[in-house]
Amino acid sequence: MGTLNKKAVCLLSGGLDSATVLYLAIEEGFIPLALTIDYGQLHRRELESAARIARHLKIDHQMISIHLPWGGSALLDSHIPMPENRNVENIPAEIPATYVPARNTIFLSLAASFAETRGAEAIFIGANALDFSGYPDCRPDYFSSFQNSLKLGTKCGGEGKTIHIKTPLISLKKSEIIERAFALGVPLELTWSCYKGGEFPCGLCDSCLLREKGFKEAGAADPLSAHSKTWDLF
Amino acid sequence: MGTLNKKAVCLLSGGLDSATVLYLAIEEGFIPLALTIDYGQLHRRELESAARIARHLKIDHQMISIHLPWGGSALLDSHIPMPENRNVENIPAEIPATYVPARNTIFLSLAASFAETRGAEAIFIGANALDFSGYPDCRPDYFSSFQNSLKLGTKCGGEGKTIHIKTPLISLKKSEIIERAFALGVPLELTWSCYKGGEFPCGLCDSCLLREKGFKEAGAADPLSAHSKTWDLF
Fold first, then answer.
1. Which of A148, A168, B49, B197 would be B192's cystine partner, CB 3.0–4.6 Å?
2. Would you identify the CATH topology of the domain B3-225?
3. Predicted complex ipTM exceeds 0.90
4. Could you tell me which residues come within 8 angstroms of residue A1 by beta carbon, excluding any fewer than 6 positions away?
């Protein structure tokens, strides 16, 4: 496969980070294969955001569903309270109740299956290890190890091809991601970050707080606020 | 958690190997959490086998469905011809069309999510690197690497707990697995190996050929043959 038609699977949750990563992959010259995973998240509106972003770009987009019946996260089980720290300074250092056990491992394994089948040489994921929620599966060491596991456990790996796990946002601050997004023309009004998935962002969950802080530090207004009231609910 | 109630997720496809591994996990003193993954395999009868084995043992059993729309395997796409080597000596050394890209990585990532949520300390998988079909995700190096990825990418890993990937069949011949199965009282008549999933095993696919060779070398009759005609189709 020549570099002119190199493909990359882009994990697209519908959030600000994954949308930016998708645009970065395109800027790097990859033909994007967007992949959205409905894992039963209660904030289903991000799935609609993912679909809108993919339609906006007119790209190949797969959405697959997987129900994790064991729950184990505030994002999956409405009986587990969602942390509401109300202020970004109050977000505790420990791993929060929104952690979904092995989520990125599930996402990357599905992306790897898609990538190997379609001959894609990279997987882009919008993981971030700086302005993030302390999730262990967002750290560089984890991604290197997983890339090695894929090298050993795939047919293409045995043939000498590596499926590269690309994490271009891993060491950026949220404000830097937002600056990158504006520069790339990412339709930020189509993205969704709030863990609650209501009609409007709740402004209280960790994801809203980190987004708000990012826009503030980038000195920009969040275009989602103005647009969200024109949306249909998913 | 004491050793008296140690738990293990047991990947149960419904085949001979995974059923034997389930019994081995119980023999080792684990409380089994059986996990069956419907990944859209055309031979759906193995799912019914998995359910029957779990019911026979009266154990916790989760069955989850995931559709891999990209196909890429003769087990997923009826347009890809199933290899019929007709004789076990004819099975070629290369990775066959029944390879499902990243299948064990998908299975193990889901098992890891289940294991972490339920506090299980091991995942049992019936992979075999001897009388197998040449799949890259059945080799010891791959499993070690994946265990390391989990260690880095889970909350419990960060707390010093390892989710052990246990592959007790990895270096056994099929005949040795069958001997082990008889010794453990595995209801082999409930298991299903044929890739085709018809009313009776086809006797021609690689999985049937390896099973037949195993029983021959173990000097035993396959109890499935006698029982299969009494089954309802799934």
1. B49
2. Rossmann fold (3.40.50)
3. yes
4. A7, A119, A121
